[in-house]
């Protein structure tokens, strides 16, 4: 019976799906540090995490039983994807399941900050009645600048236009503009045109520190800033200075360079206590609906990979969408993408009298993935020959 270790309070759907598929499921509420994780992964085939658990190359090298990592979130920068692929470990995430939740909280933040609701709320709780329109605006007619026009950015673009906002966006990749949104040719051009600037970039290393004092200075005086993407992309000390000076009228931040690993742990940030600043504990995608969808989506991907070899939507392996064939025996072979691998597989099977019924090959950079369905059980010597090849990374038999 394969074992799955699920960390960080994953939705119960994940456990239910994996247990129904015959897994022995172990759950833990918080994240684990590197040493704890190495110990916990002994004898474990499946690891389920969210954003707080780091899975570096050292952990992957010390977990020979591990076959698949499920990141029950959008981002995968907490996992060394290249090292995982090198050990034949598939990684899956949930790129779409909580995008609506992030978009909705972005809309809520934009309206709350533009209307200065946070300031009024704090004053009212302090017993101060301050009925004033000063500094409060409608979002209708204002310009929203979206940095990162991916799954979240595009949905936000549509909803913002429905509220009467004009939308401009900037992305380093070519993206189709939705509705009346306009693409800006440079980041500076976007900053100078926007009343509200919101970041929705991914966690690649090149984005670290991309938004600092220089970019903040190019924003319009009195504009609003949001970061619901990654904590390490923004210089928060510079943001604090801009809020205190009045150059930035309000900000909403959901992600931080260093975040507590467990619920209830102390939280420190230079942004605490600032006026008209909304701080949330990395909950942009954390709705009950989103977590249920993520739990179901990622658990199904993990289950299907181990049962059928399907790597569809894996973030680090060549992608093959596969169904189970109960009348066939399947060889799933991950290897380095060098010439002659397919010929070697077929020649080895032919030498041992194994008839091929179906075969699919996909490549991804330096990796190749061949899935072969055969009519008869595969002999041990066939496995030994293929697994012993210098280009071999992982071979699995799926019956």
Could you list some keywords that capture this structure?
single chain, 399 residues, alpha/beta, seven-stranded parallel sheet, 13 helices, elongated
Distance between the termini: 15 Å
Strand order of the largest sheet: 8-7-6-9-10-11-12
* H/E element order: EHEHEHEHEHHEHEEHEHEHEEHEHEEHE
Which outline best applies? Answer: elongated
Structural class: alpha/beta
Low-pLDDT segments, ≥5 res: none
Radius of gyration: 25 Å
Percent helix, as a range, is 25-40%
What's the helix count?
Answer: 13
β-strand amount: 15-25%
- Mean pLDDT rating: 96
Major sheet summary line: 7 strands, parallel
- Number of beta strands: 16
What does this structure look like?
The protein is an alpha/beta fold. 32% of the residues lie in helices and 20% in strands. The chain has 13 helices and 16 strands. It has helices spanning 12-20, 34-40, 57-61, 81-86, 99-114, 117-125, 151-162, 187-193, 213-218, 236-245, 288-308, 341-351, 380-387, and strands at residues 3-6, 24-27, 46-49, 68-71, 90-92, 143-147, 166-170, 182-183, 196-199, 223-227, 248-253, 277-279, 329-336, 356-364, 367-374, 392-398. Strand 1, helix 1 and strand 2 form a beta-alpha-beta unit. Helix 1 runs parallel beside helix 11 and helix 5 crosses helix 7 (151-162). It is elongated.
